[in-house]
Amino acid sequence: MDSWEKSAVWKVISFVKKNDIKNAKPLCKEAIRQFEDIDKRINLNVKSKISLVKTFIENVASGQQKSAQKQIDHVSELFETHIKPYLEEEERTLRKMDGGTRKVDTKGADTRQNREHVEGFNSKEIAKGPIERGTKGLIQAFKGIYKHGSWNAAFQVLKAMRGSEQLSIECLLVIVQKAFDYCKEESSTQVNTAEECARLIVKDGQLPRVKPKLSNDTPVNDLLLRYRYIHAELAVDRLQKAFLKTILEHLDTKYNIRIGQESAVERFIQDCMEVTWLMCVEDPPIYMHPLDAKNIDEKKYELEKRGKTCIVWPALQVDLNGPVVAKGVAWYK
Q1: How does pLDDT run across 86-144, given as a tens digit for each residue?
Q2: 8 A C-beta contact, residue 272 and residue 175
Q3: Residue 326 vs residues 54, 67, 152, 301: alpha-carbon distances, Å
Q4: How far apart are CA 245 and CA 198, in angstroms?
Q5: Where are the beta strands (DSSP E) in 255-300?
Q6: What residues pair up with 302 in beta bridges, in sequence order?
Q7: CB–CB of 154/248 below 8 Å?
Q8: Which own/partner contact pairs does 4-7 have at CB distance under 8 Å and 24+ positions apart?
């Protein structure tokens, strides 16, 4: 049996085809988790095309059999056209990376776990899916990107492209710094725009037709900040897409580095955007400590002996002028 046939997504589709909702429903939770995992990594041009698959699974989970039956033919075609080839290619890649000797365990199509093993990702935090909110959880998620997340694979790709460890480290630091700056600006603009829109709705009884002019002196309502905090994850996909285009153009222009689709660097970019966005909307926000390559303080950085001296991952602080709450990483000779 091929890996895609073992996926919970395909099993749900198969059971619904047989009008067997009873056996399909228990698989829906796992199928949604798998779909969301695939959706984060599949080609950006395909994302909008396969969104109906998740809607279909949700309909099955909630017992909406008639809706599911109406969607089944289209959903089955979407799986065959887009998701099945993706899962097959992922399995081929895993086998190739492991010299063709690995027996890929794709029970439930949880190929992400296998991919993380092959690429050196061994983080339970990353593998579990959703990021734990709160200062402690976000610190762990941010540190995890470097320690056992997508940093290493992205580093290896860049080093293979340019043959320079120093340039690769610089590029990855630029990515995470620009991701944070992008999210910080978005965080500020977003709540100020929402505040002004809410004021104009009360005043005029309708949404403003043009984007309102903002005043930096206007205090932001705490309830609005709380509302944004609760729904912050809704912005992740939009921000990832917008920033990806911006940062890829920057890497091309400044470093003459052109990143292909579905690369490890793209995954690193997405991880940085997701975590730094949630850091920026945290209460209180979590900031990246300014980088100072000339002053590597052991109180601010964990030191790793790697044959060169440089900062490779930023430290974190909860207040702009406050103490470091999570050490970054620096290499030394």
Answers
A1: 787 777 666 655 454 444 444 444 444 444 333 333 333 333 356 888 889 999 999 99
A2: yes
A3: 37, 49, 20, 8
A4: 31
A5: 287-288
A6: 329
A7: no
A8: 4/83, 4/84, 4/87, 4/88, 4/109, 6/106, 6/107, 6/108, 6/109, 7/31, 7/34, 7/87, 7/106, 7/108, 7/109
Strands of the sheet containing 287-288, edge to edge, are: 287-288, 316-317, 324-326
The pair of structure tokens assigned to 189 is: 């603009």
Neighbours of 323 (CB within 10 A): 10
* pTM for the full predicted model: 0.60
Closest CA relative to residue 125, chosen from 115, 137, 136: 137
- Whether the CB-CB separation of 22 and 11 falls below 8 Å is answered with no
Q: What is the rounded distance in angstroms from the CA atom of residue 172 to the CA atom of residue 247? A: 11
Q: What is the dihedral of CA 273, 193, 136, 40, to 10 degrees?
A: -30
Express each pLDDT in 266-295 by its tens digit: 999 999 999 999 999 998 899 999 887 777
> Residue with structure tokens 């480290």?
169
Residue 250: which of 172, 322, 160 has the closest Cα? 172
C-alpha–C-alpha distance, residues 277 and 110, integer Å: 26
Examine the pLDDT at 43 and tell me if it is beyond 70.
Answer: no
- Structure confidence at residue 315 (pLDDT): 95
Separation between Cα atoms, residue 111 and residue 151, nearest integer Å:
19
Which DSSP string do the residues of 80-112 spell out, in sequence order?
A: IIIIHHHHHHHHHHHHHHTTT------TBT-HH
Tokens 């909008």 correspond to: 48
Six token digits for residue 25: 């429903």
pLDDT band at 174 (very low <50, low <70, confident <90, very high): very high
HSE-up of residue 175 (Cα within 13 Å, Cβ side): 37
What own/partner pairs with CB < 8 Å and gap ≥ 24 does 225-231 have? 225/191, 225/283, 226/283, 228/190, 228/191, 228/194, 228/281, 229/281, 229/282, 229/283
The per-residue b/e assignment along 86-106, b for 16 or more CB within 10 angstroms, e otherwise, is bbeebbeebbeeeeeeeebeb
Tokens of 181: 């700056």
